[in-house]
Amino acid sequence: MTKAFRFYETGGSDVLKFEDVDVGSPGEGEVRLAQKAVGLNYIDIYFRSGVYPAPSMPSGLGLEGSGIIEEVGPGVTDLAVGDRVAYAAQPLGAYAEARVMPAKGLVKIPDDVSFELAAAAMLQGMTAQYLLRRTYQVKKGDTILIHAAAGGVGQIVCQWAKHLGATVIGTVGSKEKAEIAKAKGCDYPILYRDEVVSERVKEITNGQGVEVVYDSVGKDTFEDSLKCLKRLGMMVSFGQSSGAVPPVSLAQLAPGAYFLTRPSIFQYNATREELLASANELFEVLKSGIVTIDITATYPLADAAKAHDDLESRKTNGSIVFTV
């Protein structure tokens, strides 16, 4: 027997139960993974609270982790026992000491990347990859706006976009977080509690606005984010930490003929080829030092409820990892 988190109903962090589970052996196309580290992401809170529905109940939780393959099922040819691997993939269930999962969602970890870094990097890093390289291809001379610039995805976006030659504007909630964002390449941190973001963006850009807004906040920022765009700009709504965006009228896009998209990592990495390309590009920017990821907090896996409370209360910044 091994231990894993389950939740039988949606709600606060108190619905999480750390239970004995029988992992079993891998089936066709699966592997059994002894986990070493697990990443904490805001999407975990969405599933736990019911913002995103779990496929079935009771449900496991978590989409990101790393570990060592200890058993390989039939039909798996490109992975072997002893391989160091990481993932940011469905099904839910990363909050576990061991698990069986589809091999198609796993990627090998380079020797010079630790289990902790891999667990911290996969979901947030590949999110940054598709945002900057596929949803809107950031290029030299662009000006972008990233909300929650001191958060896990935000810090990666700031560094990567700066490397691509963009001017980076970012929103943060405190002076401390402004310094964090600035150290990661954010040219203009905006304290959203003290300033109207769209007005400050127009001031920074001489009234032009930005090519793209990356918004993971949702309800509280959506309308003002549209006001930050230049003509033909793109609004990328990829999260909703403040709540779901209300229904949008197409007329809201008319003032600048704006583009609007709601992407997800699961669609951008739907095929094995897409996953490997995304992960490989992420590992390259990590190994080259273009992107550094600060693991600002680690918790024992058993303390997942406390970690959720700290994340929801905005006590954290950067990346958070559970150790197994």
TrEMBL record:
<dbReference type="GO" id="GO:0003960">
    <property type="term" value="F:quinone reductase (NADPH) activity"/>
</dbReference>
<dbReference type="InterPro" id="IPR036291">
    <property type="entry name" value="NAD(P)-bd_dom_sf"/>
</dbReference>
<dbReference type="GO" id="GO:0005829">
    <property type="term" value="C:cytosol"/>
</dbReference>
<dbReference type="InterPro" id="IPR011032">
    <property type="entry name" value="GroES-like_sf"/>
</dbReference>
<keyword id="KW-0521">NADP</keyword>
<dbReference type="Pfam" id="PF08240">
    <property type="entry name" value="ADH_N"/>
</dbReference>
<feature type="domain" description="Enoyl reductase (ER)">
    <location>
        <begin position="11"/>
        <end position="322"/>
    </location>
</feature>
<dbReference type="InterPro" id="IPR047618">
    <property type="entry name" value="QOR-like"/>
</dbReference>
<dbReference type="GO" id="GO:0008270">
    <property type="term" value="F:zinc ion binding"/>
</dbReference>
<dbReference type="InterPro" id="IPR013154">
    <property type="entry name" value="ADH-like_N"/>
</dbReference>
<keyword id="KW-0560">Oxidoreductase</keyword>
<dbReference type="InterPro" id="IPR013149">
    <property type="entry name" value="ADH-like_C"/>
</dbReference>
<dbReference type="Pfam" id="PF00107">
    <property type="entry name" value="ADH_zinc_N"/>
</dbReference>
<dbReference type="GO" id="GO:0035925">
    <property type="term" value="F:mRNA 3'-UTR AU-rich region binding"/>
</dbReference>
<dbReference type="InterPro" id="IPR002364">
    <property type="entry name" value="Quin_OxRdtase/zeta-crystal_CS"/>
</dbReference>
<protein>
    <submittedName>
        <fullName>Quinone oxidoreductase</fullName>
    </submittedName>
</protein>
<dbReference type="GO" id="GO:0070402">
    <property type="term" value="F:NADPH binding"/>
</dbReference>
<dbReference type="InterPro" id="IPR020843">
    <property type="entry name" value="ER"/>
</dbReference>
